[in-house]
Structure formats: structure tokens, C-alpha cells
Amino acid sequence: MRSKLKLKIGEFSQLMQVTVKTLRHYEQLGILLPDEVDEWTGYRYYRVDQMQRLNAIRNLKEVGFSLEEIRELYESCSHIPSIAQLNEKIGACECELERLLLQRTRLQQWVDSRKQIKTMEKFEIQPLPAIIVASHRTVIKQYADLGPLCVNVIGPEMHRLGCKCPLPGYCFTVEHNKEYKPTDIDIEYCEQVEEMGHDSDLIQFKRMEEVPMALCMKHYGPYDRFYQSFVEAFRYIDENGYRVAGHPRTAYIDGCWNQDDPERWLSIIQIPVEKR
Description:
single chain; Multidrug-efflux Transporter 1 Regulator Bmrr, Chain A; 9-stranded antiparallel sheet; 3-stranded antiparallel sheet; elongated
């Protein structure tokens, strides 16, 4: 039996804890029409039994049905999804759950990596695993040009090429100058990626072999003070019976992309070594 009691849209909104804006949107979509619209005042009235329909709409939304899907259910004279439709939503939930679990794992790896860096001693001997990198080699006028190069050139090109970078992320530079130059620095930027891609004019992909031992040292501050850390690093190498066994890398943890103060920039100097 149709309810005789009718509620104004404001009353209906308050009782059902849903905004008037939402009710008007549902009306436009055709999934919950007012029982009556006063032709003179424009007031909208709802029946009491329409509360149940609104509740059904809310329940369908909560289990993943879109408003368009809900509209189609009501247009087909059924507000109850079929078993096939429910199984489809269960499958979508399982896919989303798998994605979220993977996302959580990667975020946890990132947290663990940050903790490891935070507790890292000033000098540590560590292996550097074999990786695939996207590489860009160029000549920059000064170290200060490195940040804008990464943000404005390398990053957009890697995105265009569809590069996927594993968390927590590993990027570093290798200098190719045979001697110190205050300008015209021949530098190669490398960023770890999940798989080999197709080279472009800006990016080349390559595999880097494992480095069994590398001296790793934290450097806080702008890049034009790297020499201070290299002094300490090479003293450690000499005094502890090592010798250099490859090109030094400079890995970037915090920089202009997330820290405004250059004194808070954190880099890790990595120098391949072997025992003398």
C-alpha cells in the first residue's frame, strides 16, 4: 500500500542523512524521483516508503555499484543484482585487494629503506645489486643544473617511455670527466627501472652488473660540497686496506624535489672497492 504521509525534501534529507544536493542528483539520474513536485512552489515531496529505496541505493553503492549501474538495475524493474553481477563485483574486489596489498608491500619497503638509511653508520661496506637503469648522459654547466634537468627533462621523458621504477627508488650519477671542472661537467644520470625499454634520443636502457663491495657514505648538503665527503671517503679507503675498483656513484635520497633547504639534502656516495 502506498504511503499517504509525504515529506518535504529537507525533511527527507535530514531523516535519511543525505544532502539535498545528492537527492537532486539522484533525481537527475532517474534513480530516485520525488513522488510529487508542486507546480507552483517547486517543492518536492517524498513518500515514506521511498526511504527504503534510498537505503537500497546506499547499500548498492557501499558494495561497489556505480550510480549508472544502479540506474540500470531500476530501469530493468529490479533493484537486486544478479548472482553474476555480484560475482563480478567480488572479482573486482579481489583485484583491488591484490593491488592494495602490493602497494602496502612497496610502501613498507620504502619505510624500511628510509629506516636503514637513517640508522646507517657514516661509513659502511655494502654490495650494490645488479640492476636495470634508464640512463641519460649530458654536459651540465654546474651541479645546480642537475635538479632542474631531472625534473624538467629526464622525468617527463621516462614517463613518456612508460618507465616503471621500483620503490623505494634508486637514482644516481656517475661523472665521466677525467679531471675536475667547475663547469661543463660530463655527467650520467641513472635511475633504476623494472625492465628494459626502447631507447630514445634522451634515454638509453642498460644493465649494470653487481658491485660486490662498495664504500657507502652519507653526504648532507649541496652538491658543490661533495669534495668534502670524498676527502673523508678516500681516507677511509686508504686507512682500511681497500682500493678503488670502479667509478664512484652519487645516489640521491633527498634533494630540491622534497627539501627547500640545501643543507637538508641527503646523498649517498658509493665507491666500488676491493681489498688490497
